[in-house]
User: Fold this.
Amino acid sequence: MNYANQFRIKTGGKVDLGKIDADYHGEYENEEATIGELEKYTRRLSELQALMYAENKHSLLIVLQAMDGGGKDGTIRHVMEAWNPQSCNVAGFKVPTAEELAHDYLWRIHKVTPRKGQITVFNRSHYEDVLVVRVHNLVPKQVWSKRFNEINNFERELANSGTTILKFFLHIDKEEQLRRFGDRLGEPDKQWKISDADYTEREYWDVYQQAYVDAISKCSFNYAPWYIIPANHKWFRNLAVSQILVETMEGWKMKYPEPSVNLAEIKQKYHAEVAEEQDLPAAVEPMVKEEQPKEKKGKKKGKKKKKK
Ligand code: AMP
Ligand code: MG
Assistant:
């Protein structure tokens, strides 16, 4: 199954979250059934990231949004497992600081978008400014309602500069949320996450869902699509997100850059002599062979020093 097609929200399409089954798990019976495929995607994501870094042409921005307990942290843990930390990072967005509030709402976002060759995962994002901000009337409607357009323009500008933007709404249902909060009560490594607000925010469930529907349906474009991922099953969520990432990155048809030097010349200039001395074909681990006599010298020096 191609989840990029299945879960992608068409531009201007109507979204009815109530009709999207958060329990959906495709053709897979259970976690075990996904393991082989998931490992394959993880290996592929690793190769694709190395290529992306070398090519230094594309940027990838992954936006994760969900209700509390929706699995943003778990998704991050899963997808980042495949990647070299050198060229990927996570940016989390919490209640804005005084400094952030003194700027426009996209200021803190734009500062941390990925450069070329890099992947950035957003744990929450500028969408909070049309979600929590709307639900709790943190700014008047006339302000937040203009933001859909502003966000679209902002994302288009990023896309025009070589950034691919993938936005995932991890869709859980209200019962699953309560189940996860309940599980946290019994897990010492998760208890720190529990807050009163998690429970009081549940009262706004429907208002949040409506805010999500508007944000997703007004802001899904080919250059920055929204995907609604059924996420009650963590293993299915990981599989679907991984598959969409692989498909997107493969679509770039990346290539390693051509070497910037003449390899034959380099081989001749720096490796031929060593190869001749040792009667080895050129470029067969010459560094290792060369280092051994040096080590002996080093040891002698060391001994001399001790005598002094
Ligand atoms: P957590 O992701 O659990 O660490 O919580 C971060 C909190 O910051 C959530 O309650 C978000 O709703 C809140 N938050 C994130 N962005 C904004 C924003 N722009 N305005 C107000 N609250 C925000
Ligand atoms: Mg939270």
Remarks:
- The mean pLDDT is 92.
- Strands lie at 59-66, 88-92, 119-123, 163-171, 226-230.
